[in-house]
C-alpha cells in the first residue's frame, strides 16, 4: 500500500481567503473540492469545513476551525519553494511577506544565492530559494 502525505492548513475563519491568495501566486493551481459550514454549524456559516487545492501541482488541504484554540501556525514548519529565477522569487516574496513578518529578508546566505523566509498575513511560513 502506498501512503500519500498532504499538507493540511487549519485557519481561524480565513481559509478561503488564504486559498484564493495562494492560488493567485502559483501556476497549476486549482480547487479540487470545497465544502462549507451551513447554518447548523458547528463552524461559522459559510466558512470552510474542508477544501482540497493544488499549487504548482502539489496538493494541499485546508479548513476553518470550528473551535477557538490557543495555537496558530509556527515558523518551525514552513512551505519551501524553489523558484526558477529572480523575478519569481522577488514577486513571491513581496506578495507573501506583505502584511506578514519577514524572518530572513531576501539575500545571499551562502547556501543560496538568493533566499528569503517570511510568514504571510495568515501566519503560514514560507521559505523561498533560487534553484
From TrEMBL:
PhnB-like domain mapped to chain residues: 4-129
InterPro entries (alphabetical): 3_dmu_93_MTrfase, Glyas_Bleomycin-R_OHBP_Dase, PhnB-like
Top-rank lineage group of the source organism: Bacteria
PANTHER family assigned: PHNB-LIKE DOMAIN-CONTAINING PROTEIN (PTHR33990:SF4), PROTEIN YJDN-RELATED (PTHR33990)
Name of the protein: VOC family protein
UniProt source species: Actinophytocola glycyrrhizae
Amino acid at each position: 500500500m502506498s501512503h500519500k502525505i498532504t499538507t493540511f492548513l487549519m485557519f481561524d475563519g480565513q481559509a478561503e481567503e488564504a486559498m484564493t491568495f495562494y492560488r493567485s501566486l502559483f501556476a497549476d493551481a486549482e480547487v479540487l473540492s470545497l465544502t462549507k459550514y451551513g447554518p447548523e454549524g458547528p463552524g461559522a456559516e459559510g466558512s470552510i469545513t474542508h477544501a482540497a487545492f493544488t499549487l504548482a501541482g502539489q496538493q494541499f488541504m485546508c479548513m476553518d476551525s470550528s473551535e477557538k484554540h490557543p495555537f496558530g501556525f509556527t515558523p518551525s514548519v514552513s512551505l519551501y519553494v524553489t523558484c526558477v529565477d529572480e523575478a519569481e522569487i522577488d514577486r513571491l516574496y513581496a506578495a507573501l511577506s506583505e502584511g506578514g513578518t519577514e524572518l530572513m529578508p531576501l539575500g545571499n546566505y551562502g547556501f543560496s544565492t538568493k533566499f528569503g523566509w517570511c510568514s504571510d498575513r495568515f501566519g503560514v511560513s514560507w521559505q523561498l530559494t533560487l534553484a
